Amino acid sequence: MLIVFAGLSISLAAQKVVTGKVTDENQAPLTGVSVMVKGTTVGTLTDIDGAFSLSVPDNARILSFSFIGMKTSEIEIGTLTTFNVTMEVDIGMLEEVVVIGYGTQRRGSITGSIASVTTEDIQELPVIDVGSALQGRATGVVALASGNQPGEGVTIRIRGRRSLTATNEPLYVVDGIPYDGNIVDINPRDIKSMEILKDASATAIYGSRGANGVILVTTNRGGDFPTTVSYSGQYGITSVLALPDLMNGDEYYTMKEVGGRAFQPEEIAAHDRGVSVDWLKLVLDKGYQQNHQLSIRGGSEKTGFALSANYLNERGVIKTQDFSRYSFRVNLDHKISDRIRVGTSTQLSNSVQNWGSNPYGTALAISPLAEPYDSEGEMVYRPGADPLLWNALADYEEGNMVDERNTLRVFANIFAEVDILKNLTYRMNYGPDYREYRRGVFQGTNSISRQGGLPRAQKEHRRTYNYTFENILTYNLTSGNHDLNFTGLYSVQKSTGEYTNIYAENVPYETQLFHNIGTAETVLEFGSDLSEWGIMSFMGRVNYEFMGKYMLTLTGRYDGSSRLAEGNKWGFFPSAALMWRVNKEGFMSTQELFSDLRLRVSYGVTGNTGIDPYQTRGSLTRTIYSFGGNAAFGYAPGTIANPDLRWESSATLNFGVDFGLMDNRISGSVEIYQTNTKDLLLERQIPITSGFNSVMENIGETRNRGWEVNLITRNLTSGEFSWETTLNFFGNKEEIIDLYGTKTDDVGNEWFIGQPLTVWYDYNKLGVWQLGEEDAAAVYAMDPGEIKVEDVNGDNILNQDDRVILGSDMPTLTVGIGSRFEYKGVDLSFLLLGVFGHTIYNSFEVSNATLQGRYNNIDVDYWTETNPTNKHPKPDGSMEYPYYSTTRGYYPGDFFKVKNIQLGYSLPNTILSKIKAKKLRVFINFDTPFIFSQLADNLDPEVYGGEVTSDVPSTRMNSIGVLLDF
Length: 966
What we know:
Layout: E1 4-8, E2 15-23, E3 34-37, E4 43-45, E5 51-57, E6 62-66, E7 73-76, E8 80-86, E9 97-99, E10 104-106, E11 114-118, H1 119-123, E12 141-145, E13 154-158, E14 171-174, E15 177-179, E16 191-197, H2 200-203, E17 214-219, E18 228-240, H3 249-259, H4 265-272, H5 279-283, E19 287-299, E20 303-315, E21 322-335, E22 340-354, H6 359-365, E23 401-419, E24 424-443, E25 456-479, E26 482-505, E27 522-546, E28 550-561, E29 570-581, E30 594-608, E31 619-627, E32 630-639, E33 648-661, E34 666-678, E35 681-685, E36 694-698, E37 701-718, E38 721-738, E39 760-762, E40 765-768, H7 774-778, E41 787-789, E42 804-807, E43 813-823, E44 826-836, E45 839-841, H8 843-847, E46 890-892, E47 895-906, H9 909-912, E48 919-933, E49 955-965
Parallel strand pairs: 2-8, 14-17
Antiparallel strand pairs: 1-8, 2-5, 3-4, 3-6, 6-7, 9-10, 11-16, 12-13, 14-15, 16-17, 18-19, 18-49, 19-20, 20-21, 21-22, 22-23, 23-24, 24-25, 25-26, 26-27, 27-28, 28-29, 29-30, 30-33, 31-32, 33-34, 34-37, 35-36, 37-38, 38-43, 39-42, 40-41, 43-44, 44-47, 45-46, 47-48, 48-49
C-alpha cells in the first residue's frame, strides 16, 4: 500500500525542489531508495534517515521510487513539493536473485547447494584477496592462511579434498569467465557478491572444472540510476600477533652449560659483560597497510557503467617484505536496441611483491650473547662464536638481498546478447586473460644467503595467455503452472604458457642487481619451457518448475581435455536435482511457524583433469656424464608415459533443507552429503631401482562425508535499532577407500585406508625417561633425560613398525559467527572464527628447541635431574637434535579467533547536505585482536598444510577508514 501525504505549492520557475521521506510499512526509514524523474536521468538516493531533496524540471510529471525488496512506486508530481512515501514489501522480490552459472535464479527456486557472501560481508573485512573474505562466512568452505608474507592469501578447500596428487583447487569464475592463477589479483572492493557452488547439481554445469567446487564472483555494474562517485580509504598499523619466548643471555648460557657444549672465549666474555641481545626485537617492526579506491557508477536507460581504480600497499613486520597492487576496472553495459545488448567487464592489475628473505628465522637461531654491531657501530657480519651464523640484520642493508615478483594481468569478458525470439536469447562471451610474471632475485656478497660468497642473480619470466569463447542459448517459457528454462552451451578454452629462467654467479658490480645478468662470470642454470592445453565443452541444463512448488534441474556436460590420453579425452558429467517447496502445500496453510520450508535432493558426477599437460607422453631429461675424460650431455627418459590416463570423477549425493521461521526472523539451511571420487589421478611413488621416482596413474578411491548448518537470525528490529546474527558451522570427514584395488595401505607414501588423505605418521611420544627407569630405558639404548616413545608392538625394539597415525592436518569442524548492530548512524559488527579437530606439526618449536647449545632456543621446559619434566629432553651438546625430536611437535590445531571487529558511524543528512554528499561513513577496525590456541605463547596455528614454520609471524591490524559517496 502506498500512502502519499502531499503539500501543495505553485511554482512558476523552470526548476523546483521536491523533498520528502521514504519509510517501510513499520515507518522505519529506508536508506538508498532510488528517487527518479521518470524518463530522465534526474534522480537521487535517500539518506540514512530516508530523506531526499531533488531539483526537478518544472514540466516533470512522475517520480519513481524503487528499492530492492519493495514494490516500485510511481507518483504524479503535479503541484506537489513534499512527498512522504510508505513503500510496500514485494513478496516476489524478497527471493534473492542468485548467480548459478550461465544465468541467475531466485534463491527460492534453487535445487542445488549454494552459499552466498555479500558485498557487505566483504567490506567489513580488511582483506586483500577474495578468498580471505570467505573465512567463517560460507558453510563447507575451509579457508586457511597460505602464509604470512604481505600479498599472501588463503588456501581454499570446498567440502574437503578429493584427490591425492591432482589439484584440489576450486574453480573461480569472474563475471562468467573462468579465472586461473592467483586470486590476489582480484580487487575485493569491486565485488558485488560471491556464490559458492558445492554439490554436483550446482557444479556439474562446469563439468571437469567443477570437481572441487566453484566460486562465482560477480563485480559491481552500472545501471539506470544517478551517477555516484565513491571513495573508500583505509589505513592500518600491523603488529606481531604473538612472539615466542626465547632464552636470554643467562638462560642460554645455563642451557649450554647443562648440555656440556664447549664455550668459546667470545661467549664467556660476553656473558661476563652481561650481554643479552633480543634479536627478534631487532628484526621485527610495525608494519602498515593502506587501501584506496575511487569508483564511478551510474548510467541511463540504455547504458550502464561502473569504473574503479584501486591502490593497495602493505609493508610487513619484516621491513624488506611488502606488497603493492594497482588495479583498474571498467564494466560497461549498452542496449543497442530492444533486442541487442553488448558490454564488457575488464580488469587491469599490476602487483609487485617484495618477498625478501627470512631474517626472522636467522634471528631465532643467533645466540643472545652475539652482538650485531662493534664498538664503532659497524655491522658485524659474523657475530658471536659460530662461523656459520650470519648477522640477521645483513639483508636490511640496501641492495644486499632482493626478491622482487611482478605480475601484470589483463582479464576481460566481452559479450553480446541477442533476443532471437521472444523467449530465446543468444549470448556470446569472449574472455581473454593475459598474464606476465617476472621474478628477479639478487643475493649480494654480504647477504644472509651468500655469507661472504660470490654474489648471485636470477631472472625468471612467465607469459600466459588464456582465452575462453562461449556460445550460450537460453530459452524461457511460462505457461499456466509451468515454468521452463533451458540453457545450452558450446565452449572452448585454450591456454598457452611460456617460461624462461637464468641463474648466474659473480656479477661484476652489485648495484646492477638482476638487470644485467649477461655480465656474470658463471651461468649456474638456464632453461625454457612451453606448456599448452585446451578444453572443449558441450552443456545442456533444464530447470522446470510446476505450480511454484516442485522444481527439477537436469544438467549434462560433455568435456574433452587435451591433457588426457587418446581415447580417454572425453567425459560426460550428468546431474539431477529435485526441490519441493513444502510451505506452499495446502496442509501447511493453517500453520504460522514456517514462512519457508524447502526440501532438496541432488546427485551428479563431475570430473577432474587437474594435472600438468603431457603426463600421458613421458619426457626426456638431460644428464651429465664423462666421455673421453670430458663432461658430456646425454638424454634419458625423465617420466614414464601412461597412454591410458583418463578422467578422475567425483559422484556426490546431497540432501538439503531450507527453512524460514516466524516470517523469516530465523532462516537457514541444513545439508548432508557424500562424495565418492574414483580413478584418482595419482602420482604414485615407485622403487628407484626402476629408474624413475613416480608414475601418474588412475588408481584409488576417496570419500568425503559431511554436514553443514547455516542460521540467520534477525534478533531485533525496532524503529532505528536492528540486530542480526549469522551462524554457520560444518564438519567434513575425508578418507581413503582404496588405493590399488587391494585395499592395502601404502606406508611409503603415508596413505592409509580409512584415514584422511594426509596424516602425521610418527612415533608416539610418551614423555621423558626419568631417574629410576634406567633399566627400562636401557632396553632401547636410552638414558634418563631422553625422549620416551611408545613400543607399539611390544618387541623391545624401536623401529619403523612402531610408528602410528597421530592425526591429520585437515579440520573436522569449522564455526563462524558474525553479528551486526545498527542504531541511528552507529553500526557495530564482529566475526568469530573457530577451527577444530585437526593436528598440526609445530616445526617452529622442534627446529628452535634443539637444546644442543649451538643455536639459541625457545625457552622450553627441559629435563634436568632437579627438573624431571616430561615435556622436553635434557640438553646435549653432542647432538644436533635429540633422539625422536620430531615427536615433540604434534599439537591439537584447534584455534578460536576474534577475526574482526568494526565500529562505524554514518553522518546524518543535516551534515551531508552542507557538504553536498550522499553518504559519509567513518569507521575503526580491529583485525584479529584476540586468538586462543593450544600452542605455547598463544602462537597462531592457522596455516594450510598444518606445519607451523619459522618464516614470518602472524599479525594483527588496527585501522581507520572512510566511505564517501557524492
